Amino acid sequence: MKQFIFAVLAGAAIIATGCVKTVSDTNAFAMSWGKDSVAGRYPRSLDQVYQAAVAVIQYNGVMIQEYIPHDNTNATRSVQGRVNDRKVWIRVEAVAPNITQVDVEARSNWGTRDLDLVHELEKQVALQLVR
Prior knowledge:
The protein is α+β, with helices and mostly antiparallel strands and 131 residues long. It has helices spanning 2-16, 46-60, 115-130; strands spanning 18-21, 27-30, 37-42, 62-67, 76-83, 86-96, 99-107. The N and C termini lie far apart (64 Å).
């Protein structure tokens, strides 16, 4: 009987958690709900902001993947990396000819969000653009 109850609770936990879309339009395991990303807009070109995002990921951790979605134009690019044992996704998107938006998202191996790291990386992208 105890094993049955444990199996039911384990099944409910698996169903309650699941995959969510990341800012780079990929899927990732998640156990937390609510706000898990931060956005910032900068008066710079897409290439400048993208290079700043790549530099921030490489400075703080390891870049795993660069991603350019083929269903959009070249106005969107994404980077995936690992920083402080967290999975990090940064999406860079041109919203106007000279305005670019950065979306940053970070999750632990257990699927929980890390908003402190997200805010820190978004600030570092902004500071990288000033240099």
